[in-house]
Structures are given as structure tokens and as C-alpha cells.
Amino acid sequence: MLGRLQLALVLLAVVVVAAMGSPHDSPGPSARGEDTDAGNGELQVTRAAGEDRVGTAIAAAGEVFGGAETAVLARADDYADALAGATLAVEHDAPLLLTPRGELDERVADTLQTLGVEEAFVLGGDAALSRDIDRSLNDLDVEVDRLAGDDRFETATKVAEQLPDQEVDTAYLVEGRHADPARGWPDAVAVSALAAAEGSPILLTDHDQLAPATTEALEHVDEVEIIGGSAAVSDNIETQVATLAEHIGRTSGDDRYETSLEVAERHAERSGQPPDTAWLATGQAFPDALTAGANAATTNSLLLLIDDASESEASAAAELLDRTTAQSLELIFVGGPAAIPDRVMDAVTGSLSEERGGTRPDPEAEPADGESASEVSRHGITWTFDDEYPVGRYANGDYWVQGPVDIVDIDPASQNSSGGRTINGSMINPSPEDGSSTGYGQTRDTGYDPSLNVADGVSTSDPLTVEPDSSLVSAISVDEDDARPGLESAAVLTVVDQPPPEDSFRPAYSSDDTTATHTTNDLDYDLLPDLDPVDGAPDPTDLASDFERVWLDHVPGWNGRAIHPTTNMPGYGRDMASKLGQGSLALMLDHPTEQKHDLLVNYVQIGIDFHGIVDNGGEENWVPNGGHAQGRKWPILFAGHLLDDPTMATIGDRDDVYFGEDAQTFHVTQEDVDRGVGYTSDDIGMPEWGIRHATDPSRDTPDWNRSYRQCCTANSWAGHVLSARLMNLQDAWNHDPLFDYTDRFIDTQEPGDHERFWDRPFTENMWDTYR
Questions:
Q1: Which residue has the higher pLDDT, 599 or 181?
Q2: Judging by beta carbons within 10 Å of its beta carbon (0-12, 13-18, 19+), is residue 34 exposed, middle or buried?
């Protein structure tokens, strides 16, 4: 059998979940609660939420803990330490609390004193949580046990050393590392409560490579259950595990939400009695889900991840809860409306009440296109009008409203944070011509211009009038004052003169013309190849959510990273390009049209928005500079050809627009040799890369180890380049040096390394198979 300390030494980290503890005494106060008649039982609904992720963790802990001798503290801006710390929290009957890296949040300090905490485990080294936090805890007479390693995996080992040795029969295996921070954690979090109930460990693995230490660990486990589909943990891994364990199974759904439902049903089946509590958290961001998992593991509770934008997922969750839980049930929704909108919460509770024979609550239903409404909500942002106006949705789900319209409230409100920083601002027709100043609030690397923030002071007595041909972009700021990016979420409300045609694409948010020029009927699916999927291929329906929210990118240059909302899009240009390449290649595979539809619609919308930036003063938005400026050309070109839009389809013919990957690649000429930067006559014609070639060729160098050459540029281009080749659009791209250099780069780099392909194994396997 396999002890917990052994499990902690697995190369990619081992997360061990302690056995389920007993509920604590009186639960603390909740942010919102109500009782609903649900047939023969009582349905209690609670929203455990604070003003930010730190406050939400405190509110969630208050639902379980009336007092505690021990607490576990983890950083609020990364999930690895908190994921490992959840096991420690359950073992010690301790709340899991989050705090900023630099100091102990005052609210956390107050909570520790209120609960009577005498000892605190602080997770991570100085870079994770500063030593100032230790000193603050000592000032509170709280003993500090810091568990830290050189990296997150070693920190997980330190955490596991605090747990008692225990033999186990079953282990859960999940994907534990992914280049995209939005992936990798959902399956591990979803299974945490179940594993806790059984006293079973969770082992983390790469997608297609089982580490030797993991192999050794699995030899001592009778049963292994893989959580997630083959896009997360490959069939090859399953084959390897089958040779090690006596029994192997897989629990998975079509996406993280269905997988969460499958895991919860498995949990309910193995419970001694029907669970009387269910914790629900967004599947889009880790903080709320982590704290929910730790708390669910402490009570007879199920844990579900829920889509913050999908009422169909809400209905599926309600159906499962009706079948598996006690008639008297408490639903605890973790996070505020920005995480789980009221309409989604109402959809779950309403569907469950209806399933159990009660009266379904009548929340404000989403209006059909052309119907009137007094407010609409999108991605945690609610716009309230002074009256009812005709509203509807574009193909990607964003709202339009027929104006002019008077807005009397934007929630969350633009205000000053506790640190005095302006947050949660809104802009109308944000443009590259605004430069590095925005109205979204004060963020690192951009200036804040109060005159651009149209959300400041909006009220019934001082409404915001928005005229037709306007795009209102509203943002939710991150909690931390000096974070990059500085926005957590953003959404677009388009004000039109006349309702657009059904299934229209949203006009670009940077444009002052909101005429809808294309619908989904214009999409030419015949242009997409139907290739056999390769190992590691994502499910297009799951991948669609990565592109559903607006990719906010109108600030020029590297400063633009400051406004890339963390729940909407990757922050860094390399990561953006890699994700866009992955999405494009997924559309090249032989999947049914309906399975590709949402991904294609969302992807084309991003291309429309990028083109809107170019057309509204953004010709120099993406000048070459390290890894920041790449990835924007292909979505425009792709959208132009799929929609048969000549302006977008000929973006490659424009010589006045900078795109990072084009502006960094060239064929060496005699002029480059004469520049004296290291090229010789033997290099003439060689495809090459320069960090700022188009704007400062004096910085070119043949040095293969030149900064940014391997880490952050061409290792994210392959998805775009291969997609263009597969669709025979290399000529339309109109920059052969990019294609030639990408071939050279990939042939030179070591296979199987992130400096060859940032997205592995999918993009790498696509290239190796189809190039």
C-alpha cells in the first residue's frame, strides 16, 4: 500500500486529501440566504460571497466554522499552493483562507482572531507569501508553520509531510499541469470532496507522460480512477496504468462541468446517506472552487463546478441534485454575481424546486430577441436601464439594446478600492487612439483617465445616456492593486439603432458603427479541413468557452497586457497566440458541424474585434517587441475567408499594419550582412528572426540564444502557420519569411519541449502529423 508521504514525492506533485471530518458547530453568517418550498423537503439557498476572492474565502469558511484552532493560508493569485493546502485544511479541521502575497489582509487577520486561531500553516516561500505575513501573524499571537519548497511541487511535498501516513486502496489520477492556467485544476478540484470522503489520494500527471515516480506509486494501489476525458489524461496513460493497477476506470464528461457532475454522482452513490449540502462554484476561475472544495470535504457535501454563463448546465446540475441528495438540502453558491450570476443561481434553485414538485421561482427570464427588458447581465456585469428597452443577443451571446438608452446602474459599481484605487470602470467605443490610457480603473502599466470612465457616478439621478452606434465595455478589476493584468472580467453591451438580424456577429467594440454586417449563415464550413484528430486533441465544445468572452486588446504595445481580463483571455502575447493556434487547429479536425459551431462563432468574433482595432487607429498596436505582439493576424484572415469579407480577407495585403510575427521574421539580405550585426554572405536567403526587426533591425543577431527567440515567440506560431497551410492561405497571409522561419525553428528545436511548442501535445502532434 501507498502512504501519503510517498505520494507527495511524485515528480509532478501529489495532492493527498484527508478523510472527511465532522461538521463544525454553528456556521457563520452568509451573504445571501433564503428558504424555498421544494415539495416535501426544504431547500435552503445561500450565497457565500465577499467583495473579492479573499472575502469570498472568508464567507465560505463562515458557512462551516464557528471556531478553529488552526488555519491554512495560501496566496490569492495562484492555485497550486491552495490546492495542496486544501488537504491540510481538512486534516486539521481548519479553514482555508487566501491573502495577497505582500501582506496579511486585514479581513483575514480579523477572521483569525474571531475564530480563535492559535496556529497557521503558511504555504509557499517568500515569493508566494512574504515574511511580513509571518510577522503579522506573530503579532496576533498565532504560531506560524511555514511550508515551503523551491517550487510549487516541492511545497506540495512539504504539505504532505504534515499529513499522517495512511495506506490506501484507491487513487484518483488527474491532469495536473497545463500551459493554460485555466486548465489543469478543474478535474483535481472537482474530485477533492469525493477523495476526502474515501481517504483517497489524488495524483497529478502530465497529459501523456507518466513520471517514473508516479509509476512506482501506482504499483501499490489496487484501483485507479482517471478523472477527465482523453483530452486531459490521454488513452496512452490509461494503457500504462492498466499494467500497474488491478482495476482501472475513467470518470469523465464532455467538458469540465459534465465531469464535475459525473464525479458528484459517484460521490453520492458512495455516501452512507444522501448528502444534505451541495457547494457550487464557477468552473472558470480557481479561487472560489478551491475554497468550496475544502469546505465540501469537511461536511457531508457534494461539490459541483457550474458554468457562469450557461443555464443548461444549471438545469443539469439541478437534475443530478434532485436524484442524489436529501430532500432537505442546502445549496451554497460560492462567489458573487461576477462569479455566478443571480440568473444562473436562480436557474439551479428553480429547476430543483420544480423537479421536486414545488413551485418554480419566477426570476426575470432572459428576454427573447426584440423583447423588452429593464436590465441584462453578462459575465458578472449587470446593466440596469431606467425603463424597458428592446434587447437581444448576438451569435456569441453578447447583448444588444435598442437605444438611445439611459443606464441607471452598472454592477459591480465603479468605485475606489480599499487601497484608494479606482476599479470597475467602463468605456464607450474604446479605441487605440486613446493610447495607454483607459477608463477601466487604475492598473499597472496603463494610465487611468477619469474622463474615459463613463461608469463613475452612474445612478438613477445621474443616468448614463448611451447613443446608438456605441459599444459600452464594462470591466471588473482584479483584487490586487499592482497585478498584471489589472482586470478580471469584461463584457460588451452594444447600443443599436435598429435590431440586428438573427444570429448576427457583434460589431467590433472599437468601432463607432454598430451595423451588423455578418451572420452565422455566412460561415463557409467547407473551407475547413476534416482531419483525423491527433493525440491530445481538445473537444471543440469544451474549447469554445476559452473564446466566449471579449478579448480586450485595444491598448497599443506591451502595455496592452494590463487590460487583458484574466477570466477572458491569456495575458501574455505568447500565450494568446498559442491559445488562438490551438483553437484554430481544433476547427480543422473531423468533428460534426454542430460540435464546431460555438468555437467557430467565438473565434470569428475575436477576428472581427481584432480587425476593428486595426480599422480604428490600431495599425501600430502590435509592433514587434519580445513576445507581446503576436497572434492577431490569423484570426482576422481566418474570419475574413470564413465570412467572405474582402476587407478582412485581404489584411495580408496591407503594408501599414504591424503584426508581431511578421515584423520579427525576414530573409537575410546583403543589407543585413552590411549592417554588421553578425550575418555573413553565407546567410543570405536564410529565414531569420529579430526581436524588433521591422522597427529596429540594428538589434538583429544570428545568436540562437537571443532573448525571446526560443521562450516566447516562434514556439507559439505553429498553430497559425499550420492552419494557414491547411487552408491554402499562405499566399493570402503574404509573408513567406514567417512560414520559412517557423519550419526552421521547429526543425532546430528539441522535440517534446515547451521551447519548441508552447502548446503540447496537441499543436506539436498536429504539426508532426500534418506538416
A1: 599
A2: exposed
Are the beta carbons of 191 and 224 closer than 8 angstroms?
no
User: Residues of the chain with pLDDT > 70: what percent?
Assistant: 85
Shortest CA distance to 600 belongs to which of 673, 556, 540?
540
Q: Averaged over 137-156, what is the pLDDT?
A: 79
pLDDT digits (tens, 9 = 90+) for 659-705: 999 999 999 999 999 999 999 999 999 999 999 999 999 999 999 99
CB 639 within 8 A of CB 607: yes
- CA–CA separation, 420 and 404 (whole Å): 33
Residues in the chain: 771
pLDDT at 15 over 90: no
C-alpha cell at position 585: 487547429
Cβ-based neighbour number of residue 238 at 10 Å: 16
Enter the pTM of the model. 0.60
Burial letters 96-130, b for 16+ CB under 10 A, else e:
bbbbbbeebbebbbebbeebebebbbbbbbeebbb
pLDDT per residue as tens digits for the range 418-457? 677 899 999 999 999 999 999 999 888 888 999 999 999 9
Alpha helices in 544-632, H assignment, sequence order: 573-586, 593-615
Q: Which helix (H) or strand (E) segment is 123 a member of?
A: strand 119-123
Residue of 91, 26, 31 lying closest to 65 (CA atoms): 26
294 closest CA partner among 3, 46, 73, 52: 73
Mean pLDDT of 311-330: 81
Higher-pLDDT residue of 769 and 481 is 769
Backbone angles phi, psi at 717, to 5 degrees: -95, -20
Position with higher pLDDT, 289 vs 161: 289
DSSP alpha helices (H): ranges in 80-225? 80-91, 106-115, 131-139, 152-160, 186-190, 192-198, 212-218
**Residue with grid cell 491527433, as numbered in its chain:** 534
Helices in 24-94 by DSSP H: which ranges?
A: 53-62, 80-91
CB 313, CB 257: distance < 8 Å: yes
List of residues 6+ apart from 542 with CB closer than 8 A: 231, 254, 255, 256
Alpha carbons within 13 angstroms on the beta-carbon side of residue 217 total 30
- From 437, 435, 459, select the one nearest 446 (Cα to Cα): 437
Q: What is the DSSP string of 254-316?
A: SSHHHHHHHHHHHHHHHSSS--SEEEEEESS-HHHHHHHHHHHTTTTEEEEEE-TT-HHHHHH
Whether 627 contacts 574, CB under 8 Å: yes
The identity of residue 606, as a single letter, is I
Among positive and negative, which fits the CA dihedral 533, 537, 542, 548?
negative
Provide φ and ψ at 507, rounded to 5°: -60, 155
Question: With bands split at pLDDT 50, 70 and 90, how would you rate the model's confidence at 599?
Answer: very high
Cα–Cα distance between 43 and 233 in angstroms, integer?
37
User: How far, in Å, CA of 177 to CA of 161, rounded?
Assistant: 22
pLDDT of residue 32: 35
Residue 88 pLDDT > 60: yes
Interaxial angle between packed helices 53-62 and 286-296, expressed in degrees from 0 to 180 and rounded to the nearest 10: 10
Quick one: pLDDT at residue 176?
Answer: 64
Non-local CB neighbours of 447 within 8 Å, separated by 6+ positions: 435, 436, 437, 438
